[in-house]
Structure formats: structure tokens, C-alpha cells
């Protein structure tokens, strides 16, 4: 059984929509809301992974710069 957004259902009923249409719209919006929550969770995981990759790249660049500096400054 699907969930329904009660506030939306009540607002649509107060606006004059029929009970069937208000119920269908509230259920559809609840489905979209759950999908958007899933997308938000996936995006937060991707953001965390990108942050780790940025730090890794920063350490690699710093290491390469230090090695290049050492190579070209040794007499």
C-alpha cells in the first residue's frame, strides 16, 4: 500500500478537488518524494567520495612537486 501526503490531500480537498483526484495526487507526490529522497542519499554518497578523491589528488600532486623540486635542485 502506498503512502499519501496528508497535507496535500487536505489542501486539494479544500480547494474543491474530488476525493479520488486528491487521493491520487497525494499518493503520486508521496512516490516522487521517496524517489527524491533516494536520489539525495545517492548524491551525498557521491559527494563524500569526490571529497576523498580530491584529498588523494592533492597529496599526489604535492608528492610529485616535492620529487620534481628535489630532482632539479640537487647539485
> Biggest β-sheet: count, sense, barrel?
none
Spans where pLDDT lies below 50 across 5 or more residues: none
Number of helices: 2
- SSE class: mainly alpha
H/E order of the elements? HH
Percentage of residues assigned to helices: over 70%
Radius of gyration: 27 Å
**What distance separates the N and C termini?**
77 Å
Number of strands: 0
Number of domains: 1
- Morphology call: rod-shaped
Strand content: under 5%
Rounded mean pLDDT score: 87
Short recap of the structure:
By secondary structure, the chain is mainly alpha-helical.
Summarize the SSE layout with pairings.
Elements lengths: L5 H10 L3 H55 L2
How is this structure best described in words?
With 75 residues, the chain is mainly alpha-helical. It contains two helices and no strands. It has helices at 6-15, 19-73.
Task: Summarize this structure as a short list of keywords or feature phrases.
rod-shaped, 75 residues, mainly alpha, 2 helices
Amino acid at each position: 500500500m502506498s503512502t499519501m501526503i496528508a497535507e496535500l490531500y487536505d489542501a486539494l480537498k479544500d480547494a474543491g478537488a474530488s476525493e479520488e483526484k486528491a487521493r491520487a495526487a497525494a499518493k503520486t507526490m508521496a512516490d516522487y518524494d521517496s524517489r527524491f529522497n533516494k536520489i539525495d542519499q545517492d548524491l551525498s554518497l557521491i559527494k563524500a567520495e569526490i571529497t576523498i578523491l580530491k584529498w588523494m589528488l592533492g597529496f599526489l600532486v604535492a608528492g610529485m612537486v616535492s620529487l620534481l623540486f628535489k630532482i632539479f635542485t640537487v647539485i
